[in-house]
Design a protein that fits this description.
Helix content is 43%, strand content 24%. It is built from 9 helices and 9 strands. The longest helix has 23 residues, at 163-185. Belongs to the GHMP kinase family. Mevalonate kinase subfamily.
């Protein structure tokens, strides 16, 4: 079993050497159990690769129980790899998960695997790897599904092809990660929220936000959210929204539902 993750700050900037901040989503989990059968199991290419990498034979049934939405930037593939490896009692789970992420995504940073393996928020960079970033805001975070599958490879390619034009926005996203850390430790959710809105505007300028991301952020803002932004690769996927009370979080959730957006409330 393991949990989902969300990128709080630094998506896309982390690709270019800046730091990113991720958080565990303990309320969203995947659990895997194995059952020996007498028939060859039908698996898609991703699950087949994971099974082969974990030395699970073709007659073993892999039962997956997950509350993590797929293709929404919440680390579902990394979490699945970890859960399958753990179900087989594999010692070096991280290596297995990294190999599977490379198969699925091509050249991942490693940020997803590190966070789904950790119960604490992380500060991550390609150069320094992951380190625990201890903070607790005593607040509520909405994980909002836009209903649009975001293809991270496409947004990464878009920025790479236009990097000279976008460099200043990438730089500013990277600076936000460094600047927001003291406010996270001080539980200053007003300033943290401002940085979330600022980050979303920069991601818009990078051309990786979708109209659904923008609509979600606007709904959150109109309902007095402290902050909101897309999370992950963008072009749809999920947004996150910070609220100082459960009542307000539920109010925002209801407003989003009226517009057709599903969401989950987690603690942060």
């Amino acid at each position: 079993m393991t949990h989902a993750k969300a990128i709080f700050f630094g998506e896309h900037a982390v690709v270019y050497g800046y730091k990113g901040i991720t958080i565990p989503l303990a309320e969203m989990q995947v659990d895997v159990t194995l059952k020996q059968t007498n028939t060859v199991q039908q698996r898609d290419k991703i699950l087949d690769f994971i099974a082969n990498r974990c030395d699970i034979d073709k007659t073993t049934e892999i039962n997956i129980n997950s509350t993590i939405p797929v293709g929404r930037g919440l680390g579902s593939s990394a979490a699945l790899s970890v859960a399958v490896a753990r179900s087989k009692n594999i010692t070096d789970v991280k290596t297995i998960a990294n190999d599977c992420e490379k198969f699925i995504h091509g050249n991942p940073s490693g940020i997803d695997v590190n966070q789904v393996l950790s119960d604490s928020p992380l500060l991550f960079s390609k150069k320094d790897g992951a380190e625990i970033l201890n903070f607790s805001l005593n607040s509520f975070l909405l994980i909002i599904d836009t209903g649009v599958v975001g293809i991270t490879k496409k947004t990464l390619t878009h920025i790479k092809d236009n990097f000279k034009q976008y460099k200043k926005y990438i730089d500013n996203l990277g600076k936000i990660t460094d600047e927001v850390i003291p406010y996270l430790k001080d539980k200053n959710i007003d300033v943290i929220g401002e940085y979330m809105y600022k980050s979303h505007k920069l991601l818009q300028k990078l051309g990786v936000s979708h109209k659904s991301n923008d609509e979600v952020v606007e709904i959150c803002k109109k309902n007095n959210a402290k902050g909101a932004k897309l999370t992950g690769g963008g072009a749809g996927g999920c947004c996150i929204c910070l609220s100082d009370s459960l009542n307000n979080a539920r109010k925002i959730q209801n407003s989003l539902k009226e517009k057709g957006y599903n969401s989950w409330i987690v603690t942060v």
